[in-house]
Design goal:
By secondary structure, this protein is of the alpha+beta class. The protein has one domain: YaeB-like fold (2-Layer Sandwich). It has three helices and five strands. Strand 3 and strand 4 form a beta hairpin. The longest helix is centred in the first third of the chain and has 14 residues. The chain starts with a strand and ends with a helix.
Length: 83
């Protein structure tokens, strides 16, 4: 099992989400503990190469893997996520 860590920005974004989305994102975070057996994770390209994203509805979660640790860097709505 991998250790899941939230960066400060991701933790703040998580707390500001609507309650329903907050619960769904917590479910994604639990799934990340089973990395690399996580379905739905897509590798990002270009300047975000080396990172992955998971989605739940219109919300995205960006993370990278460093050894046995999954580091969540960003959580947000898709309209503002890739800016």
């Amino acid at each position: 099992m991998a250790k899941v860590t939230l960066m400060r920005q991701a933790a703040q974004e998580l707390e500001s989400l609507p309650l329903v989305i907050h619960v769904r994102v917590l479910s994604l975070l639990e799934r990340l503990a089973y990395w690399p057996a996580v379905s739905g994770a897509k590798p990002l390209t270009g300047p975000l190469s080396g990172r992955y994203r998971l989605r739940t509805g219109d919300y995205r979660l960006q993370f990278r893997v460093q050894g046995g640790t999954v580091i969540v860097e960003k959580i947000g709505h898709r309209s503002r996520f890739y800016k």
